[in-house]
Write a structure and sequence with these properties.
Helix content: 40-55%
Distance between the termini: 41 Å
Strand order of the largest sheet: 1-2
Shape: flat
Order of helices and strands: HHEEH
Largest sheet: 2 strands, antiparallel
């Protein structure tokens, strides 16, 4: 959406990370709109995917890394799909 690449983000890494941290820690972070990308389906038609900005993707990963250890303990041992250690394809093993 904003045209920023990871390479551009890294050029001013400290300032960009500070902006994300400052907004998230103060409660003023609001994710920007995602870019809509159409992906063709095998059977015809299209599927629209939302692609977040680089800074929003970094913010998402920070939150994921912070909450995942606490949330993972809430799942049952045989839960698959959304857990770090248990993946759906492991069901067939």
């Amino acid at each position: 959406m904003d045209g920023q690449t990871l390479e551009i983000f890294e050029k001013d890494l400290a300032a960009n990370l500070y902006k994300i941290w400052n907004r998230m820690s103060s409660g003023t972070y609001f994710p920007p709109p995602v870019r809509a990308v159409s992906i063709p389906k095998k059977a015809g038609g299209e599927r629209v995917l939302g692609v977040p900005t680089v800074s929003d993707r970094i913010a998402q990963m920070v939150v994921k890394q912070m909450i995942e250890p606490d949330l993972d303990s809430l799942f049952l041992p045989d839960s698959y799909g959304y857990r770090r250690e248990n993946r759906p394809w492991m069901l067939s093993e």
